[in-house]
Amino acid sequence: MDKGKLGVIGGMGPQATLQFCQRVIDLTAAHSDQEHIPTLIVSDTEMPDRTAALLSGDAAPVRERLLSDAKLLEGWGAAAIAITCNTAHAFLPAIEGELRVPVVNMITETAAALKAMGAKRVGLLGTDGTLRTGIYHKALETQGIEAVTPPREAQAQVMSIIYDEIKKGLPGSGEKFAAADKALRALGCDRIVLACTEMSTYKDWHGLDDFYVDAMDILARRCVEVCGYPLRDV
């Protein structure tokens, strides 16, 4: 397999982008600078809020900016593109047809990984935008897995962790997280997906066990493979 460059559309949020790139480094079986994946990162912190765009119905500004960033990476010579935002994947159908290189789909890759794990009923910790679009529900259903969203009060706690805490540089409330965790376990989930990169950041700060499946980890692993680099056992 030929080796290729990786393009990353990040900045959503900035901390999560750095953590994603660290995971790509950690997962690459490299022994020198030259054996790591050449990577161009567009940390587009001016990208409009994806959840707000989806809930308002004004999706055009996000779509146009994602396409512009992807075209930039394509012109640089990226063999594959990663978008470090779960919610932004709702806009993929509107831009993929205009690109010559693939966007590694974090949602469908995570669903496939969950099937391989034998998951049957999976809880989702993500933004209101991600949950309302049903992108995870559809991907999981395709794999024969039932998707479960937190009850309204628990989901409000998840949104607070994402927007009131982690996006503001805070580590996130363990008490709020525990409320969402308890609610999803009570609904019979056999796995919970960290379906927002701020939730991935929460995991890095607090530590979570294997009951949680981190979509960012799965995206990073798949990007290493798609770019033709060997994976490190971690």
Plain-language structure description:
Helix 10 links the parallel strand 6 (about 190-195) and strand 7 (about 210-215). This protein has a four-stranded parallel sheet with strand order 5-4-6-7. A three-stranded parallel sheet has the order 2-1-3, sandwiched between helices. It has about 230 residues and is an alpha/beta fold. It has helices at about 15-25, 50-55, 60-75, 90-95, 105-115, 130-135, 135-140, 150-165, 175-185, 195-205, 215-225, and strands spanning about 5-10, 40-45, 80-85, 120-125, 145-150, 190-195, 210-215. Helices cover about 50% and strands about 15% of the residues. The chain folds into two domains: about 5-105 and about 220-225, Rossmann fold; about 105-215, Rossmann fold, CATH 3.40.50. About 45% of the residues are buried. The mean pLDDT is about 95. It is globular and about 45 Å long. The longest helix has 17 residues, at about 60-75.
